[in-house]
Amino acid sequence: MAAAEPGMKQFNGGGGAAPDAERGRFPHCVVWTPIPVLTWLFPIIGHMGICTSAGVIRDFAGPYFVSEDNMAFGKPVKYWKLDPSKVFATGANAWDTAVHDASEEYKHRMHNLCCDNCHSHVALALNLMKYDNSTSWNMVKLCFFTLLYGKYVSIGGFVKTWLPFVLLLGVIVTVVLTLHLR
Fold first, then answer.
1. What is the pLDDT of residues 13-64, one digit of tens each?
2. For residues 33 and 77, is the Cβ–Cβ distance under 8 A?
3. Which DSSP state fits 116?
4. What angle do CA 53, 56, 57 make, to 5 degrees?
């Protein structure tokens, strides 16, 4: 981890709280859930939110709307636990302030599936808090980090994400093989 710049405080808040999928609480986490049809075709693409230090989920759910504890496409099936000691923004409770400020900003934005979406909302929160001493968070980086470091909340979450893709792939392979064997 890079050293903090002069005048920058590191936030060492309550990072010990563990995710609790049953209660829907994921403190200091990025959460992810599949989007029907889109995730069936591309399993790494889904809907993303960021949680407060208390585990309350905030997600950019549509034009001019950031939901709280009610993700647009259902409960999270995957989470990526972040380390609050890697927050380099100044001010008291920098994590929650950044999540709040990003949410307030996105309450005034139009949703765009490709360019300004839920991933962008999470990236703004991480940039505002200077997570990992970086302000270069973006939706592509978040997509791959969630794929690499995210954990499924249960076997059911894994199945919900990958089974439709595998079934669709199986149908396509069966049709192609059937047509080539004639």
1. 344 578 888 898 999 999 999 999 999 999 999 999 999 999 999 999 999 9
2. yes
3. B
4. 115
| Radius of gyration, CA atoms only, the chain | 18
Distance CA 65, CA 103 (A): 9
Q: Give the model confidence (pLDDT) of 54-78 as tens digits.
A: 999 999 999 999 999 999 999 999 9
Cα distances (Å, whole numbers) of residue 161 to 23, 73, 79, 150, 152:
21, 12, 13, 13, 10
Whether the Cβ atoms of residue 56 and residue 100 lie closer than 8 Å to each other: no
Contact 105, 24 (CB under 8 A): no
Q: How many CB atoms lie within 10 A of CB 19?
A: 20
CA distance 42 to 117: 17
User: How far is it, in rounded angstroms, from Cα 131 to Cα 88?
Assistant: 6
Say what percent of the chain tops pLDDT 90: 80
User: How confident is the model at residue 18, as a pLDDT?
Assistant: 85
Which residue do the tokens 């392979």 mark?
173
Strand, helix or coil at 125? Answer: helix
Residue 173 Cα distances to 38, 148, 166, 167, angstroms:
19, 27, 10, 10
pLDDT, tens digit, 9 for 90 and up, residues 104-156: 999 999 998 888 999 999 999 999 999 999 999 999 999 999 999 999 999 99
